[in-house]
Design goal:
The protein is of the alpha+beta class. It is built from eight helices and 24 strands. The chain has a domain of 241 residues: YerB-like fold (3-Layer(bba) Sandwich), CATH 3.50.90. The strands form six sheets. Strands 3, 4, 5, 6, 7, 10, 18, 21, 22, 23 and 24 form an eleven-stranded mixed β-sheet that branches. Strands 11, 12, 13, 14 and 17 form a five-stranded antiparallel β-sheet that branches. A two-stranded antiparallel sheet has the order 1-2. Helix 2 packs across helix 8 and helix 7 crosses helix 8. The longest helix has 17 residues.
Amino acid sequence: MELRSFFNLTTRRDASPGASAAGGRQGRWGFPRLSEASARLRTSGLALLILVVLSGCAGAHGPETPTPTKTQEATAVEPAADTATPPPANTAADSSTATESVATATPAPGSVAHYTGLPLADPLLLQETPIFVCLNNDVTSRAAHYGLNEADVTYEYIVDGYHLTRITSMFQSIPAKEIGPVRSARWPNIHTTYMFDGLLVCSGGSDGIRYLLKNEVGFPYLDADTEDPESVTYFYSVGENYRTRLRTSVDRVRRWMLDMAKTCEVSPLLPYCLEIFTPWLEGQKNNPRPYERASFSFSDAPKEFWAGEATTIRVPYPENNGVEWRYDPASGQYVRFQSGAPHMDQATGRQISSDNVIVVYAEHELTNIVEDSLGTLSVKIHLYGFGDLRVFRDGKVYEGTWRANDQSPPRWFGPGEQPITLKPGRTWIQVVRTNDRINY
């Protein structure tokens, strides 16, 4: 009851954390970060903050990790379209010159989930902040996946010098009780969390990525390594293998948000409270909301401009990590295989399935952020802007383009700018390189 009361308070929000035109300030990597409320707190409490830091009371944060040099985002120029959809975000733009319009959201019916299009047992779930959880996806961890069949949306993307893939699942409409194995954060987590106005849950990360998440972004980040190192409150541990042991739940994550709000109320000048959490929380509480994040568009029957039949989808991820989806006419869903084996959700005992599979082609680049002791470099994926896509539903494929920015979820368009509607249910987004060739 206490958790629900807190999240009823946090369902009001100003323009998105990425809306630089609304008065937000950007960190050195260009991520929208501080609100005016944060600036006022900083000014009024500067003297006290110095005393607190000197006394050691706020000493939970050690010396700053040097921030790597930012690689500027490519600025795409998109032809005008006869739709209300905004052009792609220029994430490298200065806040003083940002002029991008915000997508006008059409509120979904009160009992239908925004990102699955399915009826909700509890309409209040619509007001909950979407939770993004980083999940391991190496060969060992695939046999220990929990909760993927309860996620509204799941992203899979290439990481670590193009050697393997990582998964991030978003939970909103189902309060999953078991999610794992939780692993470290990667570059794409920043873009996806902004798009859905969510919060991020991971277990550690490289120095460069962790610095960004704790100092530069405008959304909450729960890091198991620093917030719950013993894995007894917001996480729990099963076994000894670091690749597979760590799990969480939706309720545990929301408990952290409640505890963090109490901490920042008592100690408002803690750096993380001052810079990230309090400005985000104030934005959630103080402004009227209809929903400023648009819903996905759904239809029970596929639109007639599909490009062909597609009962098998093969996604060629590197180093024997290829994914295959096979359409099951009996259920009307695609079932998932990876590395040639059925991919199971241990929480349900069923093979992972999805009503929609979306292949997003995006630019990938190696950064100078080092991910591990072997010197493996982080892969930055450009998930803002636009590019080619394929949408699969009901055994059919749609060809078109995707568009995304930090102020709304991705949008999917077919020929002539026709919106591609999804089938009500779960959606998997397979992010691939622009030169990858999928087969279907």
